[in-house]
Amino acid sequence: MTSHHGHHHRTPADAAPGPYRLDITPADAGWQHSALRVLELPPRGSHRFDTGDSEWIVLPLSGGCGVNADGETFLLDGRASPFTAVTDFAYVPRDAHVRIDSSAGGRFALAGARCTERLPARYGPASGVPVELRGAGNCSRQVNNFAAADVFEADRLIAVEVLTPGGNWSSYPPHKHDEHRPGEESELEEIYYFEIAPHDGTEGVGYQRVTPSGRGAGTDVLAEVRTGDAVLIPDGWHGPSIAAPGHAMYYLNVMAGPDTERRWLIRDHPDHAWIRRSWRDQEIDPRLPLTTAREETPR
Fold it and tell me: Is residue 70 part of a domain?
């Protein structure tokens, strides 16, 4: 049985015709800040867009590209897929015109956040992305903190990648960030974008759960997710993200919110927070890290 696709579970079939496999805007999501587009370019393809009132990160999912903004061009080596390497990326500010060119073609995530400050366009090397191994046992996962709040400067946007080996649970214990509690919890809207590794040519699936927290609109989601799907999380306890045995799961987390300080502060679900203590006596899954930054070509 496949999940019922509702407002919070988006698939490529929901996208309007055009270059974007997914196009999630704040207005479309029914919130104020977070945005995600997934751009597909054919060989020698090109795409132009205006950043408007949002800052964006161009993140290669498959393939490489050139990103031109504010009179600068950043050449992104990219990668074959999220399961082969940590990638480089480019940050482009609000109120800019951007051109993306790809000689071999590819798939590129545009992670965005409405913002007020205009920061300089910048290149983020793959070698500078902190790779964190989080959890232990069957809750082990890899987090590529390429645009975490304490790693890469942005006005509102926070973005990280998570890789979960097949059979493991990530985004666990369930946690939330849907209210502003100084020093304890941030208020952040979040998008999960998924890709699932195939096995011997067979497409994989994973599962994403969101349960009501008593805040916001009472978001309640159980989604069977496939490559190209996204789940919108305006509020609620989110997790687990479950990778089916034999199929590693990738997701890109895009977050932004109204708090004046850009921080990722979460509160664990009180019924499940105990699981963290159990990790002290377990090893990290030996399959991790699934990916690292490959040797970059000199630029």
Answer: yes
122 vs 111: CA distance, rounded Å: 15
**Inside any domain, residue 100:** yes
Is the residue at 15 inside a domain? yes
Burial class (CB in 10 A: 0-12, 13-18, 19+), 269: middle
Report how far residue 273's alpha carbon sits from residue 181's, in angstroms, rounded to the nearest whole number: 18
Chain CA centroid to CA 79, Å: 16
Tell me, what CATH number does 245's domain have?
Answer: 2.60.120.10
Q: How far apart are CA 162 and CA 105, in angstroms?
A: 24
Q: Which residue is listed with tokens 């390497």? A: 85
- What CA–CA distance (Å, rounded) separates 211 from 139? 19
Question: Average pLDDT of 51-62?
Answer: 98
DSSP β-ladder status, 97-102 and 45-50: antiparallel
- The count of structural domains within the chain is 1
67 is in which domain, residue-wise?
9-281
Map tokens 């545009």 to a residue: 110
Share of the chain above pLDDT 70, in %: 97
Query: Is residue 178, in this structure, part of any structural domain at all?
Result: yes
